[in-house]
Specification:
The protein is mainly α and 213 residues long. It is built from seven helices and four strands; from the N terminus they run ααααββααββα.
Length: 213
């Protein structure tokens, strides 16, 4: 089979341009959760007018990035298929997190927090300076006394095990913590001494760690 390389280049360039426009990118990433949405909903997500959203969606449909489900008078848009979602995921970059003590349950995205994350990301990958920010999320990561996790059985409550307080190290410590708890559940000797991670340890007055965001 003969393939015109120039035609292939044009096709790739056209799809890339369709994805790369910030408003269209926000629409596409919004649809990655598998839910179909109306053009009105996607206009809000993209922060554009309904008429502009319709133009963007038509472009995405032309490039076969989205398709339309018609239900009565309503039209719902969804990603064209799993391959589109996979391509979007491959093009995405997740940039770090902050470690903030004493913020309580303040779930706002602050200018300082976002600046810190973006500054670190651009230091490592300066080419991201022209990238589109799709979303910023805030989460809470509880920590134990002395920033130690709480691992072990709860005395007097049969079968109740605690694994918490991993804080920012959850992604790295989590698998090992799960292994430790599994060993306890199977009534085996855990691979480490759990005395310092006792979930029932009392916190001395005034030494409680402030909440971590």
């Amino acid at each position: 089979m003969n393939v015109d390389p120039h035609q292939s280049d044009r096709a790739v360039s056209s799809v890339a341009a369709a994805i790369g426009e910030p408003a269209r990118a926000r629409m596409l990433f919004c649809l990655m959760d598998g839910h179909a949405r109306t053009s009105t909903e996607l206009a809000v997500v993209a922060d554009v007018s309904p008429s502009t959203a319709s133009v963007h969606l038509q472009r995405l449909k032309t490039e076969r990035l989205v398709d339309v489900i018609v239900q009565g008078k309503h039209r719902y848009y969804r990603l064209e298929g799993a391959s589109v979602a996979a391509a979007l995921e491959a093009l995405s970059v997740v940039a770090g997190a902050t470690r903030e003590f004493g913020v309580g349950f303040d779930y706002r995205v602050t200018a300082a927090g976002q600046a810190e994350v973006l500054g670190e990301a651009l230091h490592v990958a300066p080419g991201l300076a022209s990238a589109t920010i799709i979303e910023t999320r805030v989460g809470f990561r509880p920590v134990g006394q002395g920033i130690r996790p709480l691992l072990g059985a709860v005395p007097g409550v049969g079968g109740l095990l605690v694994g918490n307080g991993l804080g920012a190290a959850g992604l790295t410590i989590g698998p090992f913590a799960g292994h430790v708890l599994a060993e306890i559940a199977l009534e085996r000797v855990p691979p480490i001494d759990l005395a310092q991670f006792d979930p029932m340890q009392r916190t001395p007055a005034g030494s409680l760690n402030p909440p971590l965001r």
